[in-house]
Amino acid sequence: MKIGLYFGSFNPVHTGHMIIANYMAYNTDLDKVWLIVSPHNPLKESASLLNEHHRLHLTEVAVDGEPKLRVSNIEFSLPRPSFTIDTLTYLTEKFPTQQFAVIMGSDSFQNIPRWKNYRQLLDNYEIYIYNRSQHPVTDTFGANCRIVDAPLLELSSSRIRQLIKEGKSARYMVPDAVWKYIQENNYYK
Ligand SMILES: Nc1ncnc2c1ncn2[C@@H]1O[C@H](COP(=O)(O)OP(=O)(O)OP(=O)(O)O)[C@@H](O)[C@H]1O
Ligand SMILES: O=C(O)c1ccc[n+]([C@@H]2O[C@H](COP(=O)([O-])O)[C@@H](O)[C@H]2O)c1
User: Which tens digits make up the pLDDT trace of 140-175?
Assistant: First the structure.
């Protein structure tokens, strides 16, 4: 089975993420997509992060009932910050019969030379890149990659956090059940 891994802080997961995950699952040769909730992205500040268990739960609520999508907390038990190559190495050892690929936006991909052991990552794992506006893929760094033309929403978790902080509605920017859960628990206020 070929599994696409979609890494993120998911702080919170939003509809833009869900469109990508589902599109990749149904429009490529990937059999499944796992959303890997990263406790701490090495290139991001951790101050604004909602507790990782809450972020995990919100992401589980988002994929609920979708057979091709799964959420993983595998990085919760690995050293912090969460380096993607370490997670890939761990997963490959743990599930030797599965084939893992990485899903990422063209913005993240252009930053890949800043990632830990990025050569090892690109030499061993296929990358599924979706185009994000203003970030065309200008260099593939010798990666085994394919570019997928997925539908995009101009949304970000930071924008959603900001709206909630200002007391404004971010309804429809996240799946309905996620919005309900955020409100019930007063997250990001
Ligand atoms: N609207 C979007 N459409 C497609 N991909 C997205 C979108 N927003 C983020 N991504 C990508 O999803 C992955 C996980 O994103 P992440 O959890 O960091 O969310 P984010 O919205 O970029 O967060 P923040 O605004 O807090 O930086 C990253 O590869 C990121 O580039
Ligand atoms: O491994 C690295 O060096 C590395 C550097 C930056 C980001 N990542 C991972 O990439 C995922 C998405 O990151 P970003 O910056 O696109 O939001 C997140 O899960 C991070 O842990 C990984």
Answer: 999 999 999 999 999 999 999 999 999 999 999 999
ipTM of the complex as predicted: 0.94
Q: Nearest residue CA, atom 31 of ligand 1?
A: 105
Distance in Å, CA 74 to ligand 1 centroid:
19
pLDDT in tens, 46-101: 778 999 999 999 999 999 999 999 999 999 999 988 899 999 999 999 999 999 99
Q: How many CB atoms lie within 10 A of CB 148?
A: 17
Residue 46 beta carbon below 6 angstroms from any ligand 1 atom: no
For 2, list phi and psi in degrees, rounded to 5: -105, 120
Q: Map out the domains of the chain with their CATH numbers.
A: 2-152 (3.40.50.620)
CA-closest residue to ligand 1 atom 9 = 156
Going from the Cα of 41 to the center of ligand 2, the distance in angstroms, rounded, reads: 5
Task: Write out the H or E segment, with its range, that includes residue 126.
Answer: strand 126-130
Q: How far apart are CA 173 and CA 58, in angstroms?
A: 13
Distance CA(38)–CA(179), nearest Å, equals 21
